């Protein structure tokens, strides 16, 4: 199981980049990745495919996080209920 997560945060344009987090984001897209380079590339690709950020006073912030030990696997879109 990959140890890294690519996290794409869509935040309001009025929010400072340093304050943009999972808690303050308008939308969050998370995916498992294997390397830091793959993390950045995947975050940008996922956001572009989803049509984000797309103006309207929003911006995209990509972060890479380590998966927490014991975390449950992420559900993919094709497996969502």
Automatic annotation (TrEMBL):
<protein>
    <recommendedName>
        <fullName>Ribosomal protein S27</fullName>
    </recommendedName>
</protein>
